[in-house]
Amino acid sequence: MKDEQYKRIYDCVVNGKASEAQKIGEEMKAAGIDSKAIGLVLIDAMNLVGHRYREREIALPQLILATHCFKKILLPYTADSRGSEGVVVIGTVKNDIHDIGKNLVVSMLQVYNYTVYDLGKDVPLEKFVSEAKKVNADILGAGTLLTATMPELIEIINMMKEAGIREKVKFAVGGAPLTTTYAKHIGADGYAADAILAVEMANHLKKGEQNYQAARQGR
Amino acid sequence: MKEMTSTQRFEAALKHETPDMVPISYFAGILQLHWVKDNLTWKDTVEYGRNGIKMAQVTSHFLDEVGGDTAYILSDVGEIVQGWGVRMKLPDAPDIHMALGKFAVNEPEDWEKLDVLDPLIDGRMPTYLDACQWLSAKYHEKVPIGVDVPSALTTATHVAPMETVLIHMLTEPDALKKGLVTIGKTVEGFLNACADEGAFYSAYLTTRASKEITTVDQYKEFGVPYDMEIFKKTENMYHICHVCGVEPMFDIIAEYSRKTKNTKGISWWDKGAKPNLQEAKDGWGDVLCLMAGIDHTNTLTDGTPETIEKEVAESCKIAMPGSGFIFAAGCDISPKTPKENMRAMVKAIRKHGKYK
């Protein structure tokens, strides 16, 4: 990828240039830039936006707009997705309405040919399990941004066992307060710290690996 | 000191006058339902939201059993916005309310299409007014009737998806502001109708006035003008601003208190947000009545009567001096909260919350 292409994608996300986003995605695709290269720039840009958000230089509107651009840039790539890599059921747990990170993961998985059933946010725990069973999921993903709702992830594992799908369906977790240590502690099969790593994790879990923790430094 | 009625106690706290004891309030919608009906089904949740008399009876039963000083009617967030065609989604489980389903505003031009609603006719506002009337008839003026009503900006995030509203703040500010004017007039009409039916105060849900959601400048542009207009035109009731977020904008809420006659308090999660109760008392305690005191995410759900009493005692010690303190949980109390913990909380407040 050329420098100017990198800068264009990066600038679009960081500065929330929503009207240009899809066009940029189309142009990049036409220029032969592959989805992984695009994804890495998008994650770089989202890391800066996330940093600015944490420092309260910006607030949720800018963060949401950046996410919106992220998804729009990926749209041309998502359109080609055949969903043949595997089936993922994903959602944010009950009593947690945060779904920005989860939405990024959904977009990236779709780009990488996964069929994704997005249950949304504030999802009753039973629904995670019933939907995974219904669609014959390979991976069940649950996210939480609240410390108060982290224990719900353990509940999901218990429900998967009760429903008899724990051995068949891999369970992956994500969300800002989670860590590799916590994911291991509760017995999740996978943890990913961001949307790119979520794809990497999904690929490993699909190959049958267990306890795959995809984290960057310090997590 | 002579024993006060709950209304006298509550009003004294709001005005920073000395009450006989610390008033107790709740956010306990679904918990109230669970209290009444242990084998709750989602149908009961829906019925609660659709029938004002049942809503009032549940509120009253809970208050009479648990104790406290307010009859606070907590509904789902749909009673106003259904009037604009927002559709509700039935709950999947009995321990959650109906949720917002299909939204009325999706495109920028939709904001302008909204009309000011009539609280006596539109949405489920009449249901809520029935509940106010029933409770008012039961308690007369001895117990303050409280309503929870979202601010104009919060209501906007119920008319349209939250993401859409936040994006429109940046990309379509003029269109969004047209919608906020209409929504503000509707909220104002609904609050006045609640006051006409006996509501004494509102928990005015300024839920977006938290720094992890909007910047201070964004809230000043999209929240403050509409809040101020509503406060000035609903002077027959008190307002306590409720902020769910973890970085509530205390300076803005304090300005509301300085500039209006009736906006006197703030309710927030003092055990998880910044500022905590001590910081709030030190920084804003002379301007705002602080409505807080116990952690609904931890102490109430998982604590013991002993840990609850300890937390109550600490909160009373911090916030009672100089009055301006209403004891409450930071937000909606979980239906998983054990009954004995609720009773322990009330008992502890009555023990540690006496003024001399």
Describe the fold and architecture:
The complex is a heterodimer of chains A (219) and B (356). Chain A has a six-stranded parallel β-sheet, sandwiched between helices. Chain A has two domains: 3-80, Methyltransferase, Methionine Synthase (B12-binding Domains), Chain A, domain 1 (Orthogonal Bundle), CATH 1.10.1240.10; 86-214, Cobalamin-binding domain (Rossmann fold, 3-Layer(aba) Sandwich). Chain A is of the alpha/beta class and 219 residues long. In chain A, 53% of the residues lie in helices and 13% in strands. With 356 residues, chain B is of the alpha/beta class. Helices cover 49% and strands 12% of the residues of chain B. Chain B is built from 17 helices and nine strands. Chain B has helices at residues 6-14, 29-36, 42-50, 52-66, 78-81, 110-113, 125-139, 152-159, 162-171, 173-196, 216-222, 224-232, 250-259, 277-284, 299-302, 305-319, 339-352, and strands spanning 71-73, 88-89, 99-100, 145-150, 199-205, 238-242, 263-267, 289-294, 325-329. In chain B, the strands form two sheets. A seven-stranded parallel β-sheet of chain B has the order 1-4-5-6-7-8-9. In chain B, strands 2-3 form a two-stranded antiparallel sheet. In chain B, β7, α14 and β8 form a beta-alpha-beta unit. The longest helix of chain B is centred in the middle third of the chain and has 24 residues, at 173-196. Chain B is globular, with a radius of gyration of 19 Å. Chain A binds chain B through residues 16, 18, 56, 58-62, 64-65, 68, 94, 122, 124, 126-127, 148, and chain B through 92-93, 96, 99, 163, 166-167, 169-171, 211-215, 218, 247, 297-298.
